[in-house]
Write a structure and sequence with these properties.
The protein is an alpha/beta fold and 517 residues long. The protein contains 16 helices and 25 strands.
Length: 517
């Protein structure tokens, strides 16, 4: 139980949105105006687009919104990026490497500001916000140090790489990809996620543009900009990270056009329990699986449990889930206190929180059994603050087949449990979403793991341990509907955005073939 506080919580000193905004204006005045962020295209920061209002998921207060371009302006930005690409692809590798390295030094200098922007814009606790920034920097440095053999005998694409990514990892996914693509000789285009991260990405791109990286940053609705960012003939490759519905539309477009593509999509990642007894190990990992409220493509929202072990599973699971700490990521007892240690803060917005809450209510109404429902702790929030975007942990047994929680990733702190009696049922339940990015099977018997793991339709399968997207030389991709196009990670990310030998077939999940390596 959390200690009783004698004083109401206050905002940690120097961490208000106004403080972060003033620092952005001082660090990159070319990219920020008094009341808005700018788009970056044709090598110039442009005060165009219609700025939409935005609020922070942390407390519902106003923050900078995206300056949304129209389709015609987006096409102009793409054509200008092609001009940059044609020049950049001939820049010597050593110069490209020096400019990317200088960008990394600048990102390192301003890592705390980038992390603070992530807290306000997408609700990440401080520890996870810093980790997002650091993973981007450290990951790209690995490529800077070892790029020569990765590009030997290869050439940049014929046009820029267009990046469309979800809001949850602006730095370690989007900025990381952009800088590696540029290092490989391509101009790069990034679309800011609609739901958050525009100021963080604007600052990161401003620091890159100062070092001569040919980056374009634009905002707008996916529907209006897709013709330019996906279908335009100038685009050399489309890199997408997001949900299956949008990803399917992108996949159709790039397949029709024969365009190079990397499409990472969601899947229902599952954790199976079969003939297992190391409950202390499971209990230790449960809180870590809730990092960032399970708003991750590699989160584990589904446990598939052997019925005969259900009582032992609950004895390990429930005490662990009760330890989770949820609250305002910047609220402290005294203004100079260190940042609070939280497992997660808000979801991305109040609308998502309501949607998830409605799904839980509907699932229970249709027969799911609520095993755990967390409650808010007043001593983790500021007095009177808006908490509409916060969802506390929920665990449901046997969500009905009619519920989205039965077959889709909730992207929030909701666990579902399905009980099974046979290995065939175990595999069927673990493969419920036609492909996943990661999965784990906890079993005491190595032979059982070796026999069942290859039948689990996930790109990475752990033995009693969670799997992650990975960094540096670790490959990443997906099976089924969780991935389309080229795999990434290590040298495969570079291969995906460069031309190699004639008739080369990149490892990936394509309509005509599936190649692991």
């Amino acid at each position: 139980m959390a200690p009783t506080l004698t004083n109401p919580l206050v905002l940690k000193a120097g961490t208000a949105w106004a403080d972060a905004w003033r620092r952005c204006l001082a660090v990159a005045p070319e990219a920020f105006r008094d009341d808005r962020v700018l788009n970056l295209w044709n090598g110039t920061w442009q005060a165009d687009g219609r700025t939409l209002p935005a609020t922070s998921p942390v407390d519902g207060s106003p923050i900078a919104g995206p300056p949304r371009l129209d389709a015609a302006t987006a096409h102009q930005a793409v054509r200008a990026s092609l001009d940059q690409h044609r020049a950049w692809r001939h820049v010597a590798l050593e110069e490209r490497r020096a400019r990317v390295a200088a960008t990394l030094d600048a990102l390192t200098e301003h890592r705390e500001l980038l992390a603070l922007l992530l807290v306000w814009e997408i609700g990440k606790p401080w520890r996870l916000a810093q980790a997002d920034v650091d993973r981007a920097i450290d990951g790209v440095r690995w490529y800077v140090e070892g790029i020569e053999p990765m590009v030997e005998g290869r050439t940049p694409l014929d046009g820029p790489v267009s990046n469309i990514a979800s809001w949850n990892y602006p730095m370690s996914v989007l900025v990381h990809a952009v800088l590696v693509q540029a290092l490989a000789g391509n101009a790069v285009i990034a679309k800011t996620p609609t739901d958050g991260g525009v100021a963080c990405l604007t600052l990161a791109c401003a620091l890159a543009a100062r070092e001569g990286i040919p980056v374009t940053l634009v905002s707008g609705s996916g529907g209006e900009l897709s013709e330019a960012l996906v279908r335009a003939p100038e685009i050399g490759c489309v890199s997408f990270v997001g949900g299956r519905d949008t990803g399917a539309a992108v996949a159709t477009a790039v397949a029709d056009l024969g365009k190079r593509h990397i499409l990472e999509q969601e899947g229902l990642n599952t954790w199976g329990i079969w003939n297992y007894s190391d409950w202390d190990a499971l209990s230790a990992v449960i809180p870590k699986l809730f990092d960032y409220g399970k708003q991750r493509c590699t989160a584990y929202p589904r446990f598939v449990v052997q019925r005969g072990l259900f009582d032992e599973f609950l004895a390990a699971y429930l005490p662990a889930v009760r330890t989770l700490r949820v609250g305002h990521p910047l609220a402290v007892e005294h203004a100079e206190d260190p940042f609070p240690q939280l497992d997660f803060g808000p979801l991305i917005n109040a609308a998502k929180a309501k949607e998830l809450g409605d799904q839980v209510t509907e699932a229970i109404d249709r027969g799911a059994v609520p095993l755990y429902r967390g409650a808010p702790a007043a001593d983790r929030f500021l007095p009177g603050q808006d908490t509409d975007a916060y969802v506390h942990p929920v665990t449901l047994l046997n969500p009905p087949p009619s519920s989205p929680l039965h077959h889709a990733e909730p992207f929030g702190p909701v666990d579902t449990i399905v009980l099974v009696d046979t290995e065939a049922e175990l595999l069927a339940a673990m493969n419920a979403s036609n492909g996943a990015l990661v999965a784990t099977l906890s079993t005491d018997d190595t032979a059982t793991y070796d026999r069942l793991a290859p039948q689990i339709r996930a790109f990475k399968v752990g033995h009693g341990k969670p799997r992650s997207r990975g960094d540096r030389d670790e490959l990443f991709g997906g099976f089924g509907a969780s991935w389309r196009g080229a795999f990434v990670g290590g040298e495969l990310l570079v291969r995906a955005v460069t031309h190699g030998p004639a008739m080369e077939r990149p490892p990936g999940n394509f309509p005509s073939y599936h190649l692991m390596a």
